Amino acid sequence: MVEYKVIETSIVTDETLERILNEGTRQGWLFERIQFAMYEGSKRPGMAFVLFTRELPLAAQDSMAP
To answer: This protein's superkingdom (predicted)?
Structure first.
């Protein structure tokens, strides 16, 4: 079973995105993609959503079963 994690940031700089990516992968998450949200009339994104996934261990899957 796949588990998902989404991190939202309104500070869209290279330093912030690098920190989010490094922290997420250090915690065992696999980077999937970044989705940017643009403000009308702006060339820079106003927000970013960083998406990660990881495979749940079997023990965690068993505890989630109904």
So the answer is: Bacteria
Are 41 and 62 within 8 A, CB to CB?
no
Model confidence pLDDT, tens digit, residues 18-32: 999 999 999 999 999
Q: Do the beta carbons of residue 54 and residue 21 sit within 8 Å?
A: no
Domain ranges of the chain: 1-45
Two structure tokens written together for 16:
């912030």
Residue 35 in tokens:
């989705």
Contacts of 20 (CB under 8 A, 6+ apart): 7, 9, 50
- pTM, to two decimals: 0.82
Residue 5 C-alpha from the chain's centroid: 5
